[in-house]
Design brief:
The protein is mainly alpha-helical and 275 residues long. The chain is 40% helix and 3% strand. The protein contains 10 helices and 4 strands, in the order ααβαααββαααααβ. The chain is globular, with a radius of gyration of 18 Å. The mean pLDDT is 95. The structure holds fe (ii) ion (2 copies). One fe (ii) ion (FE2) is lined by residues 104-105, 182, 209-210.
């Protein structure tokens, strides 16, 4: 049975006092290299949907990946996925939300076909994980380590370095280039998946769960619209399970698969997913 109970008073995401230099270095590289040009290039390169893999094989592949940007958890990412799902289940929330917990970080699978130069390998994860921001307008001070914002080459471009940058007022998040990483990758893969029946809420949670400057710090109000206000409620609801489920409890995928497999079949079908 599920055992994960959320404690929202835990002091997580403490980037100032974090002792891990690797986390800081991750964000320095991410802020320096994630430009509009990079973002467009990655979409073209990785959104090809030509690599078939079953959901359960994909989940297993995250046994070999530890998220370097996470100051609070050093376990293989598969553990974080199961912990998130079990926390949702423990709260008796809907089955699709439980499944969303189980799959929300599967976009990290990109490391299998990524490389160091693109920042989506085991060694270099600045194009794979971490809090995201919008490429194409001024970086807000609400980003973690805002002192790195000035390192982004786009911030020297007067067509980009303003509040709106290349966007129109109120254009909405779906019309922006959110920094490239596992959120956008999985969203696009599932959007392309013909037997995907996940509700819109789940797709929004998947796409924007790492967008902390927006969902937690309320930046980008010049770009967002009423639709995004609804999105934010959904994403904040999901965030409690993503963040506060982190613990040392280790799971075996086989002990939970029996429970989640019928839910996965219901919302995603039984066939392979094209990555
Ligand atoms: Fe994530
Ligand atoms: Fe996560």
């Amino acid at each position: 049975m599920s055992e994960i109970v959320l404690d929202q008073n835990r002091n997580l995401r403490d980037y100032e006092n974090t002792v891990k230099e690797a986390v800081r270095e991750h964000y320095r590289k991410m802020r320096t290299k994630q430009t509009v040009e990079y973002n467009q290039r990655m979409r073209k390169k990785y959104l090809t949907f030509d690599k078939p893999m079953l959901l359960w094989d994909a989940i297993t592949k995250l046994n070999d990946l530890v998220d370097v940007s996470d100051p609070d958890l050093d376990l293989p990412n598969i553990q974080h996925l199961i912990q998130s799902a079990e926390a949702v289940r423990n709260d008796n929330r809907p089955d699709w939300l439980q499944l969303t917990g189980l799959i929300h970080d599967l976009g990290k699978l990109m490391y299998l076909w990524g490389c160091d130069e693109d920042g989506n390998s085991q060694a270099e994860q600045w194009g794979l994980v971490g809090d995201v921001f919008i490429a194409g307008c001024k970086l807000p001070d609400t980003c973690v380590y805002p002192e790195f914002n000035a390192l982004n080459p786009d911030m020297a471009n007067p067509a980009i370095n303003t509040e709106l940058g290349m966007y129109e007022k109120g254009c909405g998040l779906d019309n922006t280039l959110v920094a490239w990483g596992h959120d956008e990758y999985l969203y696009q893969v599932l959007k392309n998946h013909p037997t995907n029946r996940l509700p819109e809420e789940a797709m929004v949670m998947i796409r924007y769960h790492s967008f902390y400057p927006w969902h937690t710090s309320n930046s980008y109000s010049q770009i967002t619209n009423a639709r995004d206000d609804q999105y934010k409620e959904w994403v904040k609801d999901f965030n409690q399970y993503d963040l506060y489920s982190k613990c040392e409890r280790m799971y075996d995928l086989d002990e939970v698969r029996e429970f989640y497999e019928p839910i996965a079949d219901k919302y995603l079908g039984k066939g392979v997913i094209y990555w």
